[in-house]
Amino acid sequence: MAKSNDGEIALPFPILIGDIGGTNARFALLLDAFAPPKEFPIIQTAQFKTIDDALQRSILDKSSVQPRSAILALAGPIQGDEVPLTNCDWVVRPRDMIANLGLEDVLLVNDFEAQALAIAALSDGDREKIGGGEENFAASRAVLGPGTGLGVAGLVHAMHAWIPVPGEGGHIDIGPRSERDYQIWPFLEPIEGRMSAEQVLCGRGIMNIYHAICATERREATLDAPAAVTGAALSKSDPDAIETVSLFSTYLGRVAGDIAMIFMAKGGVYLSGGISQKILPALRGPEFRAGFEDKAPHGEMLREIPTFVVTHPMAALAGLAAFARMPDRFGVASEGRRWRK
Ligand SMILES: Nc1ncnc2c1ncn2[C@@H]1O[C@H](COP(=O)(O)OP(=O)(O)OP(=O)(O)O)[C@@H](O)[C@H]1O
């Protein structure tokens, strides 16, 4: 059996891989290191009381293949033998999974770690470049994903391996920069008195910006959901929605530029998460790159760093599949989050 580079033995095939978010869970089976993943229909987490029930009824009962191991990416910190999920009622108990579902080996990783694994493996068909120079293939990369929250991770190339670096980068401070920012800022809702990136760069953040613009303009806020705001912006039917998406793109560019500097991400900065793909036409506009490059004294360096929108519909699963097939290429720590029969 192969050894992964942290000295652990690679997980045995067939491997069940899963990306479990607050609303949706996506699963696929890998029969061996070469066969394409067998994907299952997306599961709504709210429709099953427990994850074991969802796995039994939606995966195991629907396939003749019994997986020997599982790699699951979860939204939330992984600590101890019972891992509650953020934004949904499921609790992941790997020991019970091994006892009840016929698995021998379970590895849990953070959802943005899976996104970081994905950006090591995406082909040109799974991403759209939106500015900057050529990528440096051996250099570090970073990924930001505005969705229900703002996930951030780095991907560092060291010791002949790609090492995902998950963190809480979505919660860094963000401050006003332009005259317009100074007008809007007093109306933005802070968290415990401070403005963090996540307060503006997620679904809730879109509404925060939109309400602040409406308050600044003394206009009634008529749109009631992030999708309504981005829809009205893309169809150019509402001036406040248009400005919301313009400022969202600027702020996403600024934070992406900060993360690029922290990781020296000359391999590129990637935008994932549910929102990036949905506002892709807006991200192609000038605001995102202008915010990204406005980083004196390092503007020159930032202008060279390419940025990409991840267009792969199941990027996290693609990342987990790449790791499952070639664990030696990645430095994924397993201490405290791997359970074996
Ligand atoms: N068209 C849209 N424009 C802007 N925001 C949207 C749009 N559609 C959904 N959203 C917002 O995106 C967020 C959900 O993001 P995303 O799809 O990335 O979910 P997630 O956090 O990855 O969870 P899960 O994995 O369970 O789907 C919600 O806040 C939702 O309101």
Automatic annotation (TrEMBL):
<dbReference type="GO" id="GO:0005524">
    <property type="term" value="F:ATP binding"/>
</dbReference>
<dbReference type="GO" id="GO:0004340">
    <property type="term" value="F:glucokinase activity"/>
</dbReference>
<protein>
    <recommendedName>
        <fullName>Glucokinase</fullName>
        <ecNumber>2.7.1.2</ecNumber>
    </recommendedName>
</protein>
<comment type="similarity">
    <text>Belongs to the bacterial glucokinase family.</text>
</comment>
<keyword id="KW-0547">Nucleotide-binding</keyword>
<feature type="binding site">
    <location>
        <begin position="18"/>
        <end position="23"/>
    </location>
    <ligand>
        <name>ATP</name>
    </ligand>
</feature>
<dbReference type="InterPro" id="IPR003836">
    <property type="entry name" value="Glucokinase"/>
</dbReference>
<dbReference type="GO" id="GO:0005829">
    <property type="term" value="C:cytosol"/>
</dbReference>
<keyword id="KW-0067">ATP-binding</keyword>
<keyword id="KW-0808">Transferase</keyword>
<dbReference type="InterPro" id="IPR043129">
    <property type="entry name" value="ATPase_NBD"/>
</dbReference>
<dbReference type="GO" id="GO:0006096">
    <property type="term" value="P:glycolytic process"/>
</dbReference>
<keyword id="KW-0963">Cytoplasm</keyword>
<keyword id="KW-0324">Glycolysis</keyword>
<keyword id="KW-0418">Kinase</keyword>
<dbReference type="GO" id="GO:0005536">
    <property type="term" value="F:D-glucose binding"/>
</dbReference>
<dbReference type="Pfam" id="PF02685">
    <property type="entry name" value="Glucokinase"/>
</dbReference>
<dbReference type="InterPro" id="IPR050201">
    <property type="entry name" value="Bacterial_glucokinase"/>
</dbReference>
